[in-house]
Design a protein that fits this description.
Elements (H helix, E strand, L loop, with lengths): L4 E2 L6 E2 L2 H23 L4 E7 L3 H16 L3 E7 L5 H12 L6 E4 L9 H5 L13 H8 L8 H12 L8 E5 L6 H10 L3 E5 L5 H8 L4 E4 L17 E4 L3 E3 L2 E3 L4 H5 L4 E2 L6 H20 L7
Parallel strand pairs: 2-12, 3-4, 3-5, 6-7, 6-8, 8-9, 9-12
Antiparallel strand pairs: 1-2, 10-11
Helix pairs in contact: 1-10, 6-7, 6-10
């Protein structure tokens, strides 16, 4: 497997998303340039945040910068934390009608008085580039063409890039949240995996017992360093979706240092599933843009 890179300690093979994403970013930029040349406007992404959490505002700013860097247009929309359900729906309907916006990307978490339903139901499914609308989720579960959520989609591409297949393999998934876990489970089952799902809090001894039977482990629990190398066996492939902060340091759900000394392969945090998420998101945006201008033969 020439694409695999060993850790400096000679342990796990490090599946770096940044390296994989370079080709995808170049392709997206070329396709966005062609779209603008053909239709006279750039594929447009609106990133919608409710509340003034500094980390979330910075993340949305980075997404908009990515849009510009990739030849798309990006718009950051930050609504006050006390925005009502009606006001949120009104803003989403306004974006639905904006012909310069082809994709709407809600950000999480929402304030306590708002729910996923308050965001997903008003969304135009044609602009639902991260697959939150009930129609998108239903089509995904039915293995029909739809907008596949970017984070699990990117990770599946990353595994394929590094030569790993989940078909016929046992996969242990920790976390079944809306943003990653539910769509990930559907993708794994569609790909032919035997799937075990657990949620937090699960005692370490249970994780160890289930991981002993697994070929892959996927962590999407949002708990820093939830899984360490002592819980895993040397043949396991570990994919980390966690984005957590200890002070100013970003860490995953995996304790990377200990897991990388044990596992067969592992994604780092940062630099693992994050860059592949960006590529998948903007692929979805390009798909949405083509659909909205009538080019329904796009892939």
């Amino acid at each position: 497997m020439s694409n695999l890179k060993s850790s400096p300690e000679g342990g796990a093979l490090i599946m770096e998303g940044r390296t994989f994403a370079k080709e995808g970013r170049a392709r997206i930029k070329a396709e966005a340039t062609e779209f603008k040349s053909t239709y006279g406007l750039k594929p447009g992404l609106a990133v919608l945040l409710v509340g003034d959490d500094p980390a979330s505002i910075e993340y949305t700013r980075v997404l908009v910068k990515n849009a510009h860097d990739l030849g798309c247009s990006g718009r950051q929309i930050v609504l006050p934390a006390n925005t009502s359900r009606g006001q949120l729906a009104e803003e989403i309907h306004r974006l639905n009608e904006d012909h310069q916006i082809h994709g709407i990307l809600p950000q999480w978490p929402l304030p306590p008085h708002l729910s996923l339903e308050d965001v997903a139901d008003p969304l135009d499914p044609r602009k639902d580039v991260d697959g939150y609308h009930p129609l998108s989720l239903g089509r995904l579960m039915s293995n029909l063409d739809t907008f596949v959520p970017a984070t699990p989609q990117g990770a599946m591409r990353l595994l394929e890039h590094y030569g790993f297949s989940v078909k016929g393999k046992t996969c242990l998934q920790i976390g079944w949240g809306v943003t990653v876990g539910r769509s990930l489970s559907s993708l794994l089952l569609t790909a032919g995996a035997a799937l075990l799902i657990i949620q937090r809090p699960t005692p370490p001894e249970v994780i160890r017992r289930l991981a002993a039977e697994a070929d892959f482990i996927f962590t999407a629990a949002g708990v820093p360093n939830l899984v360490n190398g002592d819980l895993l066996h040397p043949n396991i492939v570990a994919v980390d979706f966690g984005v957590n902060y200890i002070g100013e340091k970003m860490v995953g759900d995996l304790d990377f240092e200990s897991v990388s000394r044990v596992a067969r392969a592992v994604t780092p945090t940062p630099g693992g599933t994050g860059p592949t998420t960006t590529v998948a998101l903007f692929d979805n945006l390009l798909k949405a843009a083509h659909l909205q201008v009538g080019n329904r033969n796009c892939q």
